Amino acid sequence: MSATEARPVASPSELFELDGRVAIVTGASSGLGDRFARVLSAAGAQVVGAARRADRLERLAGEVEGLAPVTCDVTVDADLERLVAFTLERFGRIDVLVNNAGAGRAHPAESEPPEHFRGVVDINLNAVFVLSQLAGRAMLEAGSGSIINIASMYGLVASAPVMQASYCASKGAVVNLTRELAAQWARRGVRVNAIAPGFFPSEMAADMIEDEQSAKFLRRNTPIGRTGLAHELDGALLFLASDASTYMVGQTLAVDGGWTAR
């Protein structure tokens, strides 16, 4: 089949199937990462779940058949090298990488400690580049793969009055890193895209969602009038991970209830 020839029409559900593919998910021990690992597995992928908390990973592995847990600190390059080496040794390939591990905490910009700013950038940005590079090499050699970076709506707009300079800076950089990696690798078969979630249930967002005053602020400023539900990222994840998005590169999908549309 030539590059310009359309495939025969098949069942739409087949577009989203991941049977036989291998996916790495970082930050898989809780929140969005836990959900991403379960969704990819349910779609047929063999999932390698990576996170620092071994006990939570083991629990996830006990609940998701076939999930391979790897204890990993994404800020340690040697851990990322070990994660990729484990995946290639165990499964022989990497088809999908979900760079989900992240961190952030509110600080007024004038008093945020520089070491905190650097630490957030290290987790949210530097680790995304290093792991994308390591996994990307295997994908480029194979001539195919999908990298999905979990950015944030705060990578597209300012967070104020929520004060998160380091988080906004790092996530904004992830959005543009996504564009650059996509532009470099698309012709060689590797797609790089991002998801920019709004407020979803997670450890990082718990204070905002569970505090009634903050929750009112979120509802008032989100056009849909509520925070996201865990399953409302499933479609975007599967779209970018699967053959449903083979002509999509360098894009960031905002799944934010309309926050960035205001």
- Based on secondary structure, the structural category is alpha/beta
Number of domains: 1
**Order of helix and strand elements from N to C terminus:** EHEHEHEHEHEHHHE
**Biggest sheet statistics:** 7 strands, parallel
CATH class: Alpha Beta
- Care to count the β-strands? 7
Distance between the termini: 44 Å
Walk me through the structure.
With 262 residues, this protein is an alpha/beta fold. The protein has one domain (15-252): Rossmann fold, CATH 3.40.50. The chain contains eight helices and seven strands. Strands 3-2-1-4-5-6-7 form a seven-stranded parallel sheet, with helices on both faces. Strand 2 (46-51), helix 2 and strand 3 (68-71) form a beta-alpha-beta unit. The chain starts with 21 loop residues before the first strand and ends in a 7-residue tail after the last strand.
What can be said about this structure in brief?
The chain is of the alpha/beta class.
